[in-house]
Amino acid sequence: MKKIFLLLCLLCAFTSFSQSQEEADKKAIHKVLKKQRLAWSKNNIEEYMAGYWKSDSLKFYSANGVTKGWENTLDRYLKAYPTEDHTGILSFKINDITKISKDAYYVLGEYHIKRDLGNADGIFMLVFKKINGEWKIIADTST
User: How do strand 134-142 and strand 59-62 relate by DSSP bridges?
Assistant: First the structure.
């Protein structure tokens, strides 16, 4: 009986730890997205890109196809959003954050850019991975 009780206690403790770790992960991912939102709205694309994995393996997928690599993604953003009038004020609506594995989540959401030259709205799916203790976007699909 004591063994069963001990097993149940350990199972409860593990489940509780797992849930609290997942909550901490989601909170950290929200923090990355908040930093990106603020950087974008200040027309600071380089700071916005700090949320992305600085690797040639980063993938950004949009209507124009796949952009591979951090530098190429940065160049794409700078070309598409050259001025503060283009970046405008960014907001997100996060619809779902789902754990894929121990160190990876996907995020489904909507973005809204308010700007004088015309608002821009779309949807996205991001894949976050914990790399060297930091949550980074390793893949981005935006429309």
Answer: parallel
Q: Outline where DSSP puts E strands in the chain.
A: 59-62, 65-68, 89-101, 104-114, 120-131, 134-142
pTM, rounded to two decimals: 0.85
Domain holding 33, by residue range, is 2-142
CA distance 53 to 35: 15
Read off the pLDDT of residues 65-94 as tens digits, 9 standing for 90 and up: 999 999 999 999 999 999 999 999 999 999
Region of 22 on the Ramachandran plot (φ > 0 left; ψ -120 to 50 alpha; else beta): alpha
Cα separation, 50 vs 32, whole angstroms: 9
User: And the tokens for 2?
Assistant: 């004591």
Q: Give how many domains the chain has, as a whole number.
A: 1
Find the CATH number of the domain harbouring 68: 3.10.450.50
Predicted pLDDT at 103: 97
